[in-house]
Design brief:
Two copies of one chain form a homodimer. Chain A is an alpha/beta fold. Chain A has two domains: about 5-275, TIM Barrel, CATH 3.20.20.105; about 280-375, no CATH class. Helices cover about 45% and strands about 15% of the residues of chain A. Chain A has 14 helices and 16 strands. Chain A has helices at about 50-55, 65-80, 80-85, 100-105, 130-140, 160-180, 200-215, 230-245, 260-265, 275-285, 315-320, 320-330, 335-360, 365-375; strands at about 5-10, 20-25, 30, 35, 60, 90-95, 110, 115-120, 125-130, 145, 190-195, 220, 250-255, 270-275, 285-290, 290-295. In chain A, the strands form four sheets. The first copy, chain A, has an eight-stranded parallel sheet. Chains A and B meet through helix 2, helix 12 and helix 13 of A and helix 2, helix 12 and helix 13 of B.
Amino acid sequence: MKNNTFFNLIKEDVQSSARLGEIHTSHGIIPTPIFMPVGTQGTVKAIEQRELVEIDAKIILGNTYHLYLRPGMEVLHHFGGLHKFMNWDRPILTDSGGFQVFSLNDLRKINKDGVKFKSHIDGSSHIFTPDNVVDIQRTIGSDIIMVLDECAPYPSSPQYISKSIELSLSWAKKARERFISTMPKWDKPQFQFGIGQGGVYPEYRKQYIQQMNDMDFDGYAIGGLSVGEPKEMMQEIVALSAEHLPKNKPRYLMGVGMPEDILNAIENGIDMFDCVIPTRNARNAQIFTTRGKINLRNAKYKFSDELIDENIDAYPSKNFTLGYLRHLFVAEELLALQLASLHNIAFYLWLVKTARENIANGTFKNWKTNFLNQYFSKE
Amino acid sequence: MKNNTFFNLIKEDVQSSARLGEIHTSHGIIPTPIFMPVGTQGTVKAIEQRELVEIDAKIILGNTYHLYLRPGMEVLHHFGGLHKFMNWDRPILTDSGGFQVFSLNDLRKINKDGVKFKSHIDGSSHIFTPDNVVDIQRTIGSDIIMVLDECAPYPSSPQYISKSIELSLSWAKKARERFISTMPKWDKPQFQFGIGQGGVYPEYRKQYIQQMNDMDFDGYAIGGLSVGEPKEMMQEIVALSAEHLPKNKPRYLMGVGMPEDILNAIENGIDMFDCVIPTRNARNAQIFTTRGKINLRNAKYKFSDELIDENIDAYPSKNFTLGYLRHLFVAEELLALQLASLHNIAFYLWLVKTARENIANGTFKNWKTNFLNQYFSKE
């Protein structure tokens, strides 16, 4: 096992596959396991940048597809990249745009060179290729950039997946070559992750990872999960993927998930997560707390004097009651979305921070069991 | 001229009718002239309570009509009043609910005892009387409570106004009696303002004020303006009202207005203002800056590196460019509403603070002329 300057594996748990590590970027060090709040269009929805620093978000995620369409590359180029544009000087990871092309576009056309799609905003035509997606993320200035891949739907036949992974692997190779033969645009080092595919088929997953390992990416994501498959199947593929991925590189499970999914994946050796759930559910009046999920639309909270969550060290969590936050939702006040989003992200950051502390102490498995018991005790 | 413990008149301008003062409440001292951000439903739209403290809002306004309907009196009683419910420990002024009853309700029925109306939320029937509006504001725990009045529309005939002021004066008398014969519910002193009416008719305005003065309110509002009458007419009525109001009590011009309206009214001797313009216009992408109004929907700001307003000491003003804020509006991001609202309220607070400083220095008229020249120079 060899550490590199990008990823420092600090500790491996004895009782599980959980790991403690550090990712080094020019915008700061990211302790792992980590959760990355999703900032689709140059903002984590309803949360100020200084608030993300306040709750100590170590890295945020941007969506290449959305940023490419709006504000667009001209603007991002003019402002010197996304960090300056949005006034955020901590690390940023951007996805490849592939997922949105496949999920938001019915009219996409895919061939061996890339994918043609129409903007969901104005219907204009665009093409993503393995190469231009690298270039776009060079202009965005992401600290960690992802390769273009095809995210196959669930369920897909083995035949479909076989063809799909052939395409994604050829794209990954092109993307890696493009990355290696080009320089950062804004003088800050950038790193590139490959994305493992292979549907829910263990053999395909293994093959894919082996070939990807040869390309020597800076880190590896597990893609194509959390797209409708049963949760047990997801955890099985996660565990198998983690087993075959190199130990000295970070592992990122894309688009996952609920708190329990994250803890299970940490236990299986995953280091990085992103998900829209904490912010999206916040906007639907669902908050995550150390005593479980709470739906504030429930009338029983009308007179509740309980604080949102005393265990979470964030402004909304310790300063407002469930009754007040419920009122804001019922009255359709913007502050409801702000307070709930900030709290939920703070909760997710607390979750991974506490996981890290327990991995460091050798108490991860025990803590995880106790925490989930408490978290689910109301249901 | 006699000062009282509630209002301290510190200085009168020599070159104009502008005044410098202080209002003393148990939740803090309010320097005047002051602008009160509008927090209709227990929140100033899109702004956190701690942000209001950060930009040093000295007092906020709540709407009795809205609070009465939602969260409702049971909830406000349970939580010990609005301050505790919304976690805001600076002063609160509440209006009487009359304005909303008249502006939001087509089916209201008015008689000498009060006004019957249907909730705009669920159609349920309610009555506001001079007495119960005092009681409601006792439960809300407002530092400054307003009497129920009829806000006559513009234009109204002298005959209509004559009848209307007769009614409003009888209500004011009842409200004053109710206030004097009851105690605060939450052990904090409360103060009550009368509201001058009389349409755009100087004689009626004078008569009204004389009779109201006899009731010895703690302060006086000028109501029934900014309802569609020409601006010159409004300033004329404001000046005339200020002349006839006692010097040793604060004067509040309700629902006004644009920055220039506020400065003109300060010049005419007004001490307090509230208006939804800074927050409402913020949500429509209009920001107020020391170099004039800016409509961020205008495409010319797409590449603008200019900060929102370097002269305003608030987070959005000094940390984000017009180009970024425009992007947030175009992308329909919630953060657009947050940053623009916070900036606009900070601008309004800067405006009255700078007015106060210039009254203190004896430079108010000169500063006002220069500021408005600069503010309007782009138009």
